[in-house]
Amino acid sequence: MGTPHTGALLAIGTEKGLFLATSTDDRRGWQVSGPHFPMTAVYAVAIDKRRAAPRLLASVASSHYGPSVATSDDLGHTWSEPEQPPVAFPADTGATLERVWQLTPASAAEPDVVYAGSQPSALFRSTDGGASFELVRPLWEHPHRPQWEAGFGGQAIHTVLPDPRDPAAMLVAMSTGGVYRSADAGASWAPGNTGIRAYFLPDEWPEFGQCVHKVARDAVDPDRLYAQNHHGVYRSDDAGATWSSIADGLPSDFGFPIAAHPHRPGVIYTFPLVADSRRFPVDDRCRVFRSADAGATWQPLSAGLPQHPYYPAVLRDALTTDDAPTAGVYFGTRSGDVFASRDEGDSWQPVATGLPDVLCVRAAVV
Amino acid sequence: MVTLLVPGALRADSGGQARLTVDADGTLREVLDEVTRRWPRLARRIRDEQGQIRRYVNVYVDGADHRHSGGLDTPVPAGAQVQVIPSVAGG
């Protein structure tokens, strides 16, 4: 702990390209480069530190020329894309990839395995560090799939959470459809939505069909999960089998992201919006909410954030933490503002303003 | 044998070339299948994994929009010019 580190990298995916912010002074000052992949929507980025040189992965989707996944082994100075499409549906499915919504390195036990969640809702697995992916067929062929509906942003698997204890165990979440879990390396899948309300369906407590916006895993207890739902904020203490509300201390139970602290148990972050029908920050104030007791109580965080009326939303992957000993917290907004905290959310500073709509952020000490 | 005209945005995938000589003719499908064999990364910008030309990519055969000339079955005689142009779309 407290080991000096060389720098920090913040990857910012936007509607019109990838921006990279770097800091060499323990996250006090940031230098922003980009856009990399201009005029592509970057829905997902990952910083994979399981190899000698960290690998960046970026989902890039051109409205003209289609989707792809690019990788960089020199922190974004140069990028490569394979000749063959890295993520593609097999011919017999008849499906076409719209875009990759999530890129998730697997646990340290499988250093070359990377997962991709896609639109339409599917899970892909790479065993070569993200150069090429293969469809996880049992989930694609799940009997529930015809009943998974598209949300406003499209039908997609946006969350992939490998279990750090067991390479065969993982959880995915999709909008809509909800949470699904596998305990056998993806061979079979079962919904895990008990306790999550779907107010927009005739049966408000269905087995599946929920619009789960994001799921995060606790830093210390892998069985403890946190979910931001389309109305509703929940915690599971049994690896997603059952869920209970942790929204009472929040000013609203609507929002998109939820992020967990990298080291401290029970510490989580959200960015509440008023409601589905009014997607503005609560009270028109730019505030992150933090819980240090697994959702029992919440504290608004706004030191250093704009104090004027603020209207942009924060999307599901646009709030994240880094892996520094004193964790950094980061978020980007739909108006292209990006803020960073180097003290776990107590205070904030701007990293960039006026970028295109921010779709995702990821950060790490590199 | 036909000539493929590559838009500026895709020249990183054509070795920097604005014009490629494609050793195929007959139909647009046959020409694009040969592009897939020779320049797969370029080809996947033009067609999706099911072989369909992407919605916002326009392909002209000797000046005629393939969508009004038979789609992928559009005849492409030897010596023809196949031009790829991004559509005017987006914000």
Task: Characterize the structure shown.
The complex is a heterodimer of chains A (about 375) and B (about 90). Chain A has one domain: Methylamine Dehydrogenase, Chain H, CATH 2.130.10.10. Chain A is about 0% helix and about 40% strand. Chain A has one helix and 28 strands. In chain A, strand 11 (about 155-165) and strand 12 form a beta hairpin. The longest helix of chain A is centred in the middle third of the chain and has 4 residues, at about 135-140. Chain A starts with 7 loop residues before the first strand and ends with a strand.
Produce the secondary structure layout.
The complex is a heterodimer of chains A (366) and B (91).
Chain A: E1 8-14, E2 17-23, E3 31-36, E4 40-48, E5 55-62, E6 66-72, E7 99-105, E8 114-119, E9 122-126, E10 134-135, H1 137-140, E11 156-163, E12 166-175, E13 178-182, E14 190-191, E15 212-217, E16 225-229, E17 233-236, E18 244-245, E19 254-260, E20 268-275, E21 278-281, E22 288-291, E23 299-301, E24 319-321, E25 329-332, E26 338-341, E27 349-352, E28 358-365
Antiparallel strand pairs in A: 1-2, 1-28, 2-3, 4-5, 5-6, 7-8, 8-9, 9-10, 11-12, 12-13, 13-14, 15-16, 16-17, 17-18, 19-20, 20-21, 20-22, 22-23, 24-25, 25-26, 26-27
Chain B: E1 2-5, E2 19-22, E3 26-27, H1 28-38, H2 40-46, E4 57-61, E5 64-65, E6 75-76, E7 81-86
Helix pairs in contact in B: 1-2
